[in-house]
Amino acid sequence: MNEHYPFVNPPLPYAYDALEPCIDALTMCLHHDRHLQTYVNNLNETLKDCPDLHDWSLERLLCNVDCLKKDIRRSIRNNGGGVFNHIFYFNGISNSETRCQAGKLYDAIVTEFGCVEAFFYEFKEKALSVFGSGYAWLTVDQDCKLQIITTANQDTPIVQNLCPVLTIDVWEHAYYLMHYNDREAYIQNWFNVVDWECANMHYMECLECFECNKCRN
């Protein structure tokens, strides 16, 4: 997406039906074209009369939301977070033939969790534990260690100084048409379309970012 206001909803990097039978085409269409688009529209409407913020990136807005005017903080947090989280989610799943190439991230997962199966179990339990709406994330902390965390609603890990690697959206609109209220079935299907090649790219970027910060300090 573009770096600053007015923000746009980038097209999906695959066809709506590309992830079937794991995620159905109608869900992808509604999720992307309506839910995400609403967040983009609301974010732009909030920023419309704030010219001093028009050159701020989305991450800068989210990380500095408590410094903004009180009357726009909630909207920036909710709608800006909705834009960030959804784009990260959509870009982290794929039908790519190379999506299983996890690279160094695979080694880090085995080191941190003992084995891939243990990671899958812990991640699934975290995703199931989200009460109501939110996300489960694999992140990298300042010590370059992997962490699985959850966030409520449209909160993001970046405000906790955590670098996101991958995420699953567990709002019901992400799976209700196909799975009704069976979140566990959705999570199992989501595992089949995770783009580990993309996740590894994010992981390497996270390591580079935190290592560079250590060098500066």
Question: Could you please describe the fold and organization of this structure?
Answer:
With 217 residues, the protein is mainly α. Helices cover 50% and strands 10% of the residues. The chain has 8 helices and 3 strands, in the order αααααβββααα. The chain has helices at 25-47, 58-63, 70-91, 104-113, 116-129, 176-179, 183-191, 196-216; strands at residues 134-140, 146-152, 163-169. The protein has a 3-stranded antiparallel beta sheet with strand order 2-1-3, with helices on both faces. β1 and β2 (146-152) form a beta hairpin. α1 runs antiparallel to α3 (70-91). The two termini are 31 Å apart.
Features:
single chain; 217 residues; mainly alpha; 3-stranded antiparallel beta sheet; 8 helices; 3 strands; globular; Mn/Fe_SOD; oxidoreductase; metal-binding; EC 1.15.1.1; Mn/Fe_SOD_BS
